[in-house]
């Protein structure tokens, strides 16, 4: 239909891109204006079929294959671009995938590219935290997008609240107390973000293009301290919450625990510095979330809401 716009979503079968596709397919206002093109390497998988059933056009492309990306973005008004560092845990791969996408976006004349970026922590920390590779690599792609002069906004996802239950916050043994354990001080600032909200941020970005082209846009519901994370958890589940606490893990304990899970040394160091960042230079360099909250109209998922739906907390009283 004339006048309709296409948003092509990379990572549509995953957490962030899935959030974008869900919002653009589910929000009646957006649906009257936008068509969703969902990108996956495997259109036969269930998550891709679900997207098709909900009305998305599913296309096959691989960020390692330039020609497939060029075809995927053709005719798009907007593109949401995300890469999954953790699949290969390689800076070279992530930067190359981001550059491939930027080149295709430039070639297709896309009017608004939303790149899922992060800050360059080596620069922010002046070399004190030089190993947060998955942040630095996304920032390198951001620089490349700027160099190419692509009309873009840089979305900066916060700390996934979905990563906390069952892993960082869990019971110590079958009837043991609940402990939130990280190598952080109790008053560090965690930018709490739910990836299913990604579409709400992207909606605000596209609807405020005049204000946000060329800018960064932070993604988080609120900053919370580890102490507050536990307090809210205890309030939601008073029976077991009475004994819940935050425990500041030492660097040695953290390293031993990660190595115990079979992680190679460079990833252990990367994760340690990633967490330490929130205690030192700040995940977002200390920036306020207010400019984001002024422009996002849809309600963002709070930790209080999420604890009630998290699988690892099911059945708690
Ligand atoms: N955890 C956190 O707190 C946090 C915070 C900020 C940022 N991040 C970043 O979030 C990123 C992961 O995003 P996510 O959580 O949405 O991931 P996810 O749920 O694991 O999904 C990964 C998505 O990437 C797609 N993908 C992977 N490799 C691809 C390729 N070569 N070509 C095309 N598509 C590809 C997958 O699509 P198919 O498999 O269908 O092809 C899938 O849709 C990571 O880079 C991480 O650094 C995480």
TrEMBL record:
User: Which superkingdom heads the taxonomic lineage of this protein's source?
Assistant: Eukaryota
UniProt keyword Glycoprotein present: no
Family that this chain belongs to: Belongs to the NmrA-type oxidoreductase family.
Q: What is this protein called?
A: NmrA-like domain-containing protein
Annotated Gene Ontology cellular component terms: nucleus
Keyword NADP: yes or no? yes
Keyword list (alphabetical) reads:
NADP
Pfam families, alphabetized = NmrA
The record's section on PANTHER family has: NITROGEN METABOLITE REPRESSION PROTEIN NMRA FAMILY MEMBER, NMRA-LIKE DOMAIN-CONTAINING PROTEIN-RELATED
Q: Which residues form the NmrA-like domain?
A: 5-307
Can you name the source organism? Xylaria flabelliformis
């Amino acid at each position: 239909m004339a006048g309709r716009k296409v948003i092509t979503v990379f990572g549509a079968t995953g957490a962030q891109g899935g959030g974008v596709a869900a919002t653009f397919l589910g929000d009646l206002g957006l649906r009257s204006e936008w068509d969703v093109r969902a990108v996956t390497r495997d259109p036969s998988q269930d998550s891709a079929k679900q997207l098709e059933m909900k009305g998305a056009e599913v296309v096959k492309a691989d960020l390692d294959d330039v020609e497939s990306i060029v075809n995927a973005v053709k005719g798009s008004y907007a593109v949401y671009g995300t890469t999954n560092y953790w699949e290969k845990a390689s800076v070279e791969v992530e930067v190359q995938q981001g550059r491939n996408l930027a080149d295709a976006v430039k070639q297709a004349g896309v009017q608004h590219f939303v790149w899922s970026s992060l800050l360059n922590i080596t620069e922010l920390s002046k070399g004190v935290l030089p190993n947060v590779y998955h942040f630095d690599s996304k920032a390198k792609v951001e620089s490349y997008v700027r160099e190419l002069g692509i009309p873009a906004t840089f979305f900066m996802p916060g700390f996934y609240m979905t990563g906390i239950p069952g892993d960082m916050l869990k019971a110590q043994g079958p009837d043991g107390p609940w402990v939130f354990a990280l190598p952080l001080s109790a008053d560090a600032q965690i930018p709490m973000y739910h990836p299913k909200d990604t579409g709400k941020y992207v909606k605000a970005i596209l609807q405020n293009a005049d204000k946000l082209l060329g800018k960064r846009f932070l993604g988080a519901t609120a900053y919370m301290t580890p102490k507050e994370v536990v307090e809210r958890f205890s309030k939601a589940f008073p029976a077991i919450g009475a004994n819940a606490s935050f425990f500041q893990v030492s660097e040695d304990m953290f390293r031993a625990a990660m190595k115990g899970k079979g992680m190679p040394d460079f990833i252990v160091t990367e994760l340690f510095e990633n967490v330490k960042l929130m205690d030192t230079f700040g995940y977002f360099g200390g920036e306020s979330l207010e400019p984001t909250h002024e422009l996002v109209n849809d309600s963002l998922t709070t930790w209080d809401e999420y604890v009630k739906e998290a699988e690892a907390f099911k059945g708690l009283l």
